[in-house]
C-alpha cells in the first residue's frame, strides 16, 4: 500500500494508505482499530475501487486527539482526506459509521455511504455510567480493568461474559494483551496503545444520542449493514435509521458478528462484506 498524509483543519496530521484502481472509496475504521484493521477488505475491493484507509486521530500514522475533541473534528479529518483524494464513496464501521453518517449530513462531496453497525444510541439503549470508571482506570494506568469496563459497559462481549466473574475477565484480557504485544510487528498499533482511544469513540455515541431526527435531511444513498450476532443496540440503531433516512437500503448478515468487515485474524469475513459494497457502490441510481 502507498502511504500519504494530509493536514486537517486544525493542523493535525492525518495519514492514510491507498490500494487499488477505480472510483475512490474511503474506509473509516471503528473502535480499537486502525487503518490496517481492514486491509483484507481493501484488497477485496481493490479491483473495483481505489481504496483509502486512514488512521483516525490517536492511532498509527495520524496525530493525537485534542482536549476539545468532538465529532465535528472527525468530520473535518475525513473531509481533508476526501478533498485530497477526490473520493466520492464512504464505508464506515461502528464509530466510523457515526462519522460517515454525520459527514453525509454536513458535506456535499459524498455520493454514497455504507454504514456498518453504527452505535447510535436510541432511547437510552446504552448508558454512559461506565465511562466514569473507565476514565479513572485509564488515568490510573490500569488498562486491563479499563478494557473490561469498556467491554461490559459497551456490551461488546458475548452475552455469557455478563455472568463471568470480573477477575476472570481481567485475567483473560491480560493474557490477550500480552499475546498482542508479543506478536506485534514493527508498524502495528497494539491493543495497549489503542485502549485510551475508547474514551473518544464512546463520546461520539453520547454526543449524537437522541439526534436521530436530524439525519432525515441526508440526501445521499445509504447502505445500512448489520449482523445477526451484534449487540442489540446496534440493531436498534439500524432499525431507527432505516425508518428515518430517505434513501436507505438495509442488508443483514445473520451468520456474522460485529467484526465481520475486519481482517480474518479478528474473526472477520471481508470477502462477504466486499460483495455487498461492490454491488451497492457500482449500482446506478
UniProtKB/TrEMBL annotation:
<protein>
    <submittedName>
        <fullName>Alpha/beta hydrolase</fullName>
    </submittedName>
</protein>
<dbReference type="Pfam" id="PF12697">
    <property type="entry name" value="Abhydrolase_6"/>
</dbReference>
<dbReference type="InterPro" id="IPR029058">
    <property type="entry name" value="AB_hydrolase_fold"/>
</dbReference>
<dbReference type="GO" id="GO:0016787">
    <property type="term" value="F:hydrolase activity"/>
</dbReference>
<keyword id="KW-0378">Hydrolase</keyword>
<dbReference type="InterPro" id="IPR000073">
    <property type="entry name" value="AB_hydrolase_1"/>
</dbReference>
<feature type="domain" description="AB hydrolase-1">
    <location>
        <begin position="25"/>
        <end position="258"/>
    </location>
</feature>
Amino acid at each position: 500500500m502507498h502511504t500519504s498524509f494530509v493536514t486537517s483543519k486544525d493542523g493535525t496530521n492525518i495519514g492514510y494508505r491507498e490500494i487499488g484502481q477505480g472510483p475512490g472509496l474511503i474506509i473509516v475504521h471503528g473502535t480499537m482499530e486502525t487503518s490496517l484493521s481492514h486491509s483484507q477488505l481493501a484488497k477485496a475491493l481493490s479491483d473495483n475501487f481505489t481504496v483509502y484507509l486512514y488512521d483516525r486521530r490517536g492511532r498509527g500514522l495520524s496525530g493525537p486527539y485534542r482536549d476539545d475533541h468532538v465529532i465535528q473534528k472527525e468530520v473535518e479529518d475525513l473531509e481533508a482526506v476526501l478533498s485530497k483524494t477526490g473520493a466520492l464513496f464512504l464505508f464506515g464501521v461502528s464509530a466510523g459509521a457515526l462519522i460517515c453518517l454525520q459527514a453525509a449530513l454536513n458535506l456535499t462531496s459524498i455520493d454514497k455511504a455504507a454504514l456498518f453497525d453504527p452505535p447510535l444510541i436510541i432511547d437510552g439503549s446504552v448508558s454512559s455510567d461506565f465511562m466514569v470508571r473507565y476514565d479513572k482506570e485509564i488515568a490510573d494506568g490500569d488498562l486491563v480493568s479499563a478494557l473490561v469496563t469498556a467491554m461490559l459497559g459497551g456490551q461488546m462481549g458475548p452475552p455469557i461474559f455478563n455472568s463471568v466473574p470480573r477477575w476472570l475477565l481481567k485475567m483473560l484480557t491480560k493474557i490477550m494483551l500480552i499475546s498482542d504485544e508479543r506478536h506485534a510487528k514493527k508498524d502495528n498499533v497494539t491493543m495497549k496503545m489503542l485502549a485510551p482511544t475508547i474514551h473518544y469513540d464512546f463520546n461520539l455515541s453520547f454526543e449524537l444520542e437522541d439526534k436521530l431526527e436530524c439525519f432525515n435531511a441526508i440526501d445521499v444513498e445509504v447502505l445500512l449493514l448489520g449482523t445477526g450476532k451484534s449487540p442489540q443496540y446496534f440493531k436498534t440503531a439500524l432499525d431507527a435509521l432505516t425508518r428515518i433516512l430517505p434513501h436507505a437500503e438495509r442488508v443483514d448478515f445473520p451468520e456474522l458478528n460485529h467484526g465481520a468487515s475486519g481482517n480474518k485474524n479478528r474473526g472477520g469475513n471481508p470477502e462477504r462484506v466486499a460483495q455487498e459494497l461492490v454491488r451497492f457502490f457500482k449500482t446506478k441510481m
